[in-house]
Specification:
The protein is of the alpha/beta class. The protein has one domain (5-176): 3-Layer(aba) Sandwich (Rossmann fold), CATH 3.40.50.360. The protein is built from five helices and nine strands; from the N terminus they run βαβαβαβαβββββα. The strands form two sheets. Strands 1, 2, 3, 4, 5 and 9 form a six-stranded parallel sheet that branches. The chain has a three-stranded antiparallel sheet with strand order 6-8-7, with no helix packed on it. A hairpin with a 2-residue loop joins strand 7 (141-142) and strand 8 (145-146). The longest helix is centred in the last third of the chain and has 20 residues, at 157-176. The N and C termini lie close together (11 Å). The structure holds flavin mononucleotide. Flavin mononucleotide (FMN) binds next to helix 1.
């Protein structure tokens, strides 16, 4: 398998730290994490296996200039996918959020990214159980699963590392399928 590309958006840096933690755990199998606002569509499309991360900001929104970021992020990148064919690409998504303060929009960005990638033909892997979280609603949920790994650094930081380890073990096998 070629290297896994890791791309993230962030406001206050938490998602970047998780992306770096994931890259460190994957070692040589992953490329260094890249901020999605500082890359090109061609660099993104260079990978067949991708791990992408995003916080949810605003009211259940992708990070970007509409929610006050001074730099472009996922909000500006996603429209570029309209010109892309993601057939043959496998993508796993992780998202950071706050299940208490934003209980009606918890990790919505996972759902927004999922739909954008699937619409362009990608296979999205890395679903994660909703058991163990306490929130009211999320665009990132299908049945009793999130469409990617949900992390809450505000209320469940102690669970993050074990969640990442279990999720990486799961997606490694899903990437090989
Ligand atoms: C203005 C603002 C809006 C937010 N909106 C949401 C939201 O709708 N849903 C959610 O789950 N988390 C929301 N959050 C929480 C962030 O996703 C969380 O703090 C995350 O860890 C930030 O990651 P970052 O440091 O990579 O930017 C919001 C945070 C801020 C500051």
């Amino acid at each position: 398998m070629d290297k896994i590309g890791i791309f993230f958006g962030t406001d206050t840096g938490r998602t970047r730290l998780i992306a770096k933690q994931i890259a460190k755990k994957l070692g040589d199998t992953a490329a260094a994490p890249v901020n999605i606002g500082r890359t090109t569509l061609a660099d993104f499309l260079a990978y067949d296996h991708l791990i992408v991360g995003s916080p949810t900001l605003g009211d259940g929104m992708l990070p970007g200039e509409s929610c006050g970021l001074s730099q472009p992020s996922w909000e500006e990148f996603v429209p570029q996918l309209a010109a892309a064919d993601l057939t043959g690409k496998t993508i796993a998504i992780f998202g950071l959020g706050d299940q208490k303060k934003y209980t009606h929009e918890f990790v919505d960005a996972i759902g927004i990214l999922h739909d954008a990638f699937v619409a362009r033909g990608a296979r999205v892997v890395g679903r994660w159980p909703t058991a163990g979280y306490d929130f009211a609603a999320s665009q990132a949920v299908d049945g009793d699963e999130f469409l990617g790994l949900a992390l809450d650094q505000h209320h469940q930081p102690v669970l993050t590392e074990e969640r990442i380890d279990a999720w990486l073990a799961q997606i490694k096998t899903e990437f090989l399928r």
